[in-house]
Amino acid sequence: MSDSCPQPISPPGKWPDRYTRQMLFTPVGEEGQRRLSSAHVLLVGCGALGSVIANLLTRAGVGHLRIVDRDVLDATNLHRQVLFDEADLAADLPKAEAARRKLVAINSDVHIEAVVADANPENIRELAEGADLLLDGTDNFETRYLLNDLAVATSRPWIYGACVGATGLSLVVLPGETPCLRCIFEEAPPPEATGTCDTVGILGPTPSLVASHQALEAMKILIGRLDAVDRRLWSFDAWANHWSRVDVGKARQPGDCPCCVGRRFEYLEGRHATRTITLCGRNAVQIFPRRTGHIDFAQLADRLRPVARAEPRCNGFVFKALIENYELTLFADGRALIRGTNRAEEAKAVYARYIGA
């Protein structure tokens, strides 16, 4: 046996063959990798979808990844939010910062920027400064419509994604070429009509499927291969083994979209932003959601009953439920009181998690 020591391993950022297998794929090649390495991406949301997207794009060598997320980790995240582990949970880290720490260890070539904040009309332009592409890792329509407005207003592509249970959706929006999100979903569904991960559950593989599609389409856009972009609405029910790609190209043709045709950027201008008021001395936050209209309390009670600590109560005027350490009081027009916190962002997260947005 030789007594000589093996040669030291080069630092990760110096590895010349890091992207070799990716570059061997002809549509990428050296030019595509160069484009990826100079690209700047904004990812809003770093939970189930965002953690997978961030992981894949970091490994692919995207030059600059800015991650925006308002939330902190909890134990229920770990079965599907693949970047995180029990050490992150014990450290009580915000998701954006926990992700940054993992990603810089994966690929030191990529500039990872963590922003612990709620994306809203006041800060979204600054958050998106310099970004070539906007990516959706969120869990609510209000932020998605905000991203959609910004993308259309500034002629930047963005990619929508959503999932719950074993179902998922993904859509690429190329402003001026494809329908925007409001062409297809002009209004968000009422909160009592749709489940969330915290009310109907989610299987771990589900967000990985959606996010992988988002990351793949993002790579096509960033390397300049718009001809290869999937311009259909991609959806699936993995439990029922149903997969579909719906041609939505005609959704923009009637010309009644308020955003990409009417050029009304209501979410970007803050006209539909959720407002909050912290109630002094009451450890509660009042939330005024962007949508108004009567809420079906009976349907909402059916949806929240499995996660409530006691039987939800409702009459024709007020709905009440005890969930975790919070008391949710919901009025028929969607206005809510969240007792158990005096932090507006925490209250908004609770509302989005259990009522919807």
For the structure shown, list the relevant keywords.
single chain; 8-stranded mixed β-sheet; Rossmann fold; 357 residues; 2 domains; alpha/beta
Q: Please indicate the count of domains.
A: 2
Multimeric organization = single chain
Indicate the CATH architecture of the largest domain.
3-Layer(aba) Sandwich
**Helix amount:** 25-40%
Biggest sheet descriptor? 8 strands, mixed
Describe the global form. Answer: globular
Mean pLDDT: 88
Q: Treating each run of at least 4 consecutive H or I residues as one helix, how many helices?
A: 12
Strand ordering within the main sheet: 3-2-1-4-5-6-7-8
What is the CATH T-level topology of the largest domain?
Answer: Rossmann fold
Low-pLDDT residue spans = 1-14
CATH class of the largest domain: Alpha Beta
Give the beta-strand count: 14
Distance between the termini: 66 Å
What is Rg? Answer: 22 Å
Structural class: alpha/beta
Give an overview of the whole structure:
The structure is a single chain. This protein is of the alpha/beta class and 357 residues long. It has 2 domains: 12-252, 3-Layer(aba) Sandwich (Rossmann fold); 275-354. It has helices at 20-23, 29-37, 48-60, 86-90, 95-106, 124-127, 141-154, 181-184, 197-200, 205-222, 297-304, 344-354, and strands at 40-44, 64-69, 111-116, 133-136, 158-164, 167-173, 233-237, 242-246, 275-279, 284-288, 313-314, 318-323, 326-331, 336-339. The radius of gyration is 22 Å and the shape is globular. The protein starts with 19 loop residues before the first helix and ends with a helix. Residues 1-14 have low confidence and may be disordered.
